[in-house]
Design brief:
single chain, 8 helices, about 160 residues
Length: about 160
């Protein structure tokens, strides 16, 4: 797609159609997932200078390994699979940073390291990912990706026809 703004606009324009078919109590988690999928977890994160990559500001470096192993319009542009890979990647990155923080803090101050390690991220993840809200959040991310990928496909087809 020529401009990231077009993806953002089309994605946001499509959101009400999705909301129309959802249960009312799941509209907020779905919408949050959809907006996160549109602006922060876009398939275009595989490009270092894409708009979604730049939106991560000073945390942009978290996506460098992902960008090194993922070619543009490769697995990141596969509906469902690309979304789940990016979600798993960001969860893995957060876990890695958490355990690195525990390790560094434990060297400096064992008491503080022990206090930080009192939180079990795996219990929190289990609670989060087994809730119905999480399912709708992930569905929102996936739907945002599907709209993005459809726009890419239509744009490529249009360019070939012209």
């Amino acid at each position: 797609m020529a401009l990231g703004r077009t993806h953002d606009l089309v994605n946001l324009t499509a959101l009400p159609a999705f909301l129309y078919v959802l249960p009312k109590d799941m509209m907020v988690p779905f919408s949050l997932g959809y907006v996160v999928g549109t602006f922060l977890l876009s398939p275009d994160l595989d490009l270092p200078n894409s708009k979604p990559s730049r939106r991560w500001k000073f945390l942009r470096w978290v996506w460098f390994p992902y960008q090194m192993i993922s070619k543009h319009r490769g697995v990141s542009h596969m509906p469902v699979l690309g979304s789940l890979i990016r979600l798993a990647y960001i969860v893995g990155a957060v876990l890695f940073l958490y355990f690195t923080l525990i390790g560094v803090v434990s060297v400096v101050d064992k008491g503080m390291g022990y206090a930080i390690s009192g939180w079990n991220p795996f219990e929190s993840l289990e609670r989060a990912f087994t809730s119905q809200e999480a399912v709708y959040f992930v569905a929102g991310v996936i739907c945002a990706d599907v709209v993005h990928i459809l726009m890419d496909s239509l744009w490529s087809l249009l360019r070939r026809l012209i």
